[in-house]
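Fold this complex.
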Amino acid sequence: MAELDLLSKGMTTCQGCPMELIGRSALEVLGPKTITMTPPSCSAILTGSGDETGWGIPSVQTVLMSLPAFASGVSEALKIRGMDDVTVMGFAGDGGTFDIGLQSLSGAIERGHKAIYICYNNEAYMNTGGQRSSATTLGASTKTTPTGKKEVSKNIDFMLLHTPLAYQATASVGNIRDFKRKLAKAATKDGPCFIHVMTPCPSGWKFPADQTVQIAKLAIKSGMWLLFEREDGKITINQKPTNFELIPEYLSRQKRFNRINDEITAQIIEEAKTRYETLQQLSQLACL
Amino acid sequence: MGVIKALDGNAAIAHGVMRSKVQLVAAYPITPQTPIVETISSLIDTKQYDATYITVESEHSALSAVIGAASTGVRTFTASASHGLALMHEVTGTCSASRLPAVMAVVSRAIPGPMCLWCDHSDIMTQRDQGWIQLFAKSPQEALDFIMIAYRTSEDERVLTPTMVDIDGFFCSHLTEPVDVPTEEEAERFITDFNPVNAVLDPELPYAINNLTSPAIFTEIKRSQDLGMRAAAGVLDERFEQFGELFGRRYGRILCENVEDADTVVVCMGSMAGTVQHVVRQLREEGKKVGILRVVAFRPFPAKEVAEALKNAKNVAVIDRVSAMGSFGPLYEEVLASMRLGRLDANAYSFVAGLGGRDIWEQTVEDVIARTEELGAENSVCDAPIWIDLKEEEVVTNG
Amino acid sequence: MQELVKQRTKMLETLPKIVGPVSVKVSDVHTGVWRYRRPVIRHDDCIRCGICAEYCPCGVIEKAEVMTVDYTYCKGCGICTVECPKKAIDFVLESEFEGEGDQ
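Structure:
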């Protein structure tokens, strides 16, 4: 008899949804003594509606702008009540993290509340149907950028390198064991932790649902997604990109990049290389 | 008797919070509320007060953190004004709908624009339908007392509705008066440790709080909230009574003076009540039959009590410290609805005064009463609010 | 019925009265009806490494004596069929599926 699931099996997320996999895997690591919060987003599907919820743990539906502030309140209240063994898990998308929730996130990190913030990045506002976010890759078609996004995405990981996080990591649905290891580490920290997970969205990125994990793996190999962690003032790169020349393949396997030309492809490759070079140099330095 | 201290409205609120054994405070400074933030955080920082203060980065986060903490079962407080309250707007509804008994001090300041630091009620009136009990204090003493009464009311299981305690920016927040501060032991006779009676976040009993709500049940949840708010009326009466017995300071949802036989009654809220009361007493000495009806609880609105109090009045003057542009002031509309409830046909006139920190002088009140009596004598119908103390020559229009 | 649903149903029996938007029942949509292709494990080729279960978004694959799929909930995304290192999971059209099946 397996241990009790902490997330119902009958959730109405899309076929092949990596966000659900990340939520499910997170609870396998954190266990029943966890309180989760979701903003209005795809993850709110797990929190449910009406008198039903998908979670087997307590949860709060926050507003989009201030999940980290809700988490601050919960975290401090748990201390007041002497419930130190309970983990607070924020679970928000790129919209709630990169855009509307960024101020609240930066405040909560700086104040140092004990909580784990998981950002599942599907590179657009997917729950409202797929509008661009500041995490959307250059050239990607979305509902608000039908001819392709003109801007380079915001690098939130680099932004957060100079904030007093107790633990910071990137992860990917393409390497679930690495994600679980990082989350287990975060759970031991007595401060704010941020884990940024790449979650390719079959519905929004337009690829077959069975390819979700493959796309994520290809992102890691091609250098479109970097796996690293920051702990005790040191950045560790967990997996090196194999070959930047795989980027065109990564792009061509998603219909959202149907409209890009060679010039944009070259720009995306160049950006990926620079990003990795920057990370390599940063990993030689002492951080916060 | 407690200890008499010289406190302004903001400091009185801070003492009320401490005496109410609040466990967690999250607030963001804004003029004229800032001294509340400074006083409470300093008391906590210097260990004179055992509580948690979250130094949030915005008002939106302040109330969000309070909601998180209240959902986890601790007693919470926040405070704001004007822009800050506007920024909180999204979450004031979340807080009340989630039936969290938080308390907030609102130090009223005009809502923008134009940019203004000074008092009127345009900020708190944006919140009138957000499901919070609203109490208007007129003095530092009342501010302290109402904070304590607010917790006992909000947390009552019949109510489970948050409360805003409003004081007028500068007029009350920065006015220093002798304030009777209950000692800890005295306060404990009225207010004890927090015991959450509704759902809280606890792994032993895994609830999802504030979930997406469909048309199938949304109306019923709102009605339940409305009933909680309505129940607050009776609970407030009980608490005012109990508070009066313990501390000797007696309050009610409305406070009247000289209304029983008054021909003209002035209805008002907040700090202007002191001036109105003073003018009414003076005019009484001159033999004029005038009275004052002060609304303390704007939500839940004491419609029955207002109707009962106004039953003998010939003329009613309502002073709103806010302009509902293109319509009548919110207090006026409530009073009219109450008069309808009592089937009263007195003349009622809507006045707008004291916007953006403009003083309401004795002369202002005298003008209001004079205009009311004049219009009442002609049985005039009030077709638009009357702007008092208006510099007509400075009103620029293109029409 | 899922264990989580059973446990929560029991909890509901002794629940104190609560007011406000609070959800306690477990969502239990039988999402298996969405499926138009089903993953079918060839147990002879399966090495029980559990990678399929690790990558199943819906948590419907369980590692028992043999790997089992809960077809009540399996949406048929096919991730398991792609991730299986032994390629021991067939992805069969429901219309062509001939074995004994739930649902």
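The interface with chain A takes residues 23-24, 26, 52, 54-58, 60-62, 64-74, 76, 90-91, 94, 201-203, 205-214, 216-217 of chain B (CB under 8 Å).
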